[in-house]
Design goal:
Blueprint (H helix, E strand, L loop, with lengths): L2 H37 L1
Length: about 40
């Protein structure tokens, strides 16, 4: 792999990781809200 390709690959990886992070965060929030709604 050339250096340019590696740079693009790393940038894409970061974007994907951030997106996954956001999804997990939202998932945790909705799970917590759901649990709270069930408990009360």
């Amino acid at each position: 792999m050339s250096r340019a390709n590696l740079g693009v690959f790393e940038a894409n990886l970061l974007v994907i990781l951030e997106a996954v992070n956001e999804l997990v965060h939202l998932e945790l929030l909705t799970d917590t809200e759901f649990a709270a709604n069930v408990n009360f």
